[in-house]
Design a protein that fits this description.
elongated, alpha+beta, single chain, 2 domains, Alpha-Beta Plaits, 6-stranded mixed beta sheet, 9 helices, 6 strands
Length: about 250
Amino acid sequence: MLKRFTYALTAGLLSSGAPAGLLGVRLAKKQGTGVSLPQVRRDITDERASYMYVGVTTAVIFGMFGYLLGRKVDTLAQLSETDSLTGLLNARGFWARLCNEVKRSRRYHEPLTLLFFDLDGLKDINDRHGHRAGSMALRKAARVIRSELRETDVAARWGGDEFTLIAQKTGAETGMALADRIRRRIADRMAAWPLTASVGVATADPQNTAASEPTALLREADLAMYEAKKRGKNNTFHSQTGNRVPC
């Protein structure tokens, strides 16, 4: 969200030549002839106060315009990475964050755990109660996930009925506990539908570059999620440890 400040600073710097140009035009009108650069310099020296006034006001105006333009760019960038239904990140925004977090995990040699959620039974809700009810169920599931996020965690709607979550500085055991806590809360909150979640968990090893690649980590979590579904749904499975937390 720093583009607004970058745009403001850039616009302010670009405005630096405007005062000299304006004073040059004024000098040309005054003399009725062409104006050379030395003449403009002399005019600026003779009327330093006018030059400073024009320079400051021009920089302020350009800076404000740049800030407003940058803020619009920030807003558009945020919208392009946000899922409109749930308010979580979308797949594009999540992938960018995952790549950054994997790099951070390697740099500081800290564990990183990825959770992959798939809602069990959403199709039945859509078929029985309509897609509006299905959208409501997705929003409720997203609220459950968001309520369990720590300050450094990142969650997204990956697509359809699938959600993802990055847990920084989190090993396999803590990641499994977090996944199962969210799974249980989804089952409790959605008991009226009913709706549950199968969760795949994968933990990056910062010492193993190949194993901690974003693509490999996502694939591990995705496969673990399918294993959880295959073992009866509404449970949690870790790709490396093979631990399973049943309902």
